[in-house]
Design a protein that fits this description.
mainly alpha, single chain, 3 helices, 42 residues
Length: 42
């Protein structure tokens, strides 16, 4: 099960370490993609 499914459906059992890893390693990529899309580059 991917982290998105865990966050949406199994949030009672979400590990703080999983949240931190997602924010640390994936959020910068998401921000870059969103900024690119907003600037017409995506």
């Amino acid at each position: 099960m991917g982290s998105g499914n865990v966050y949406r459906h199994d949030y009672d059992d979400v590990s703080p370490a999983l949240v931190w890893a997602t924010v640390t390693y994936r959020l910068p990529q998401l921000i870059a993609a969103a900024e690119g899309a907003l600037n017409g580059q995506g």
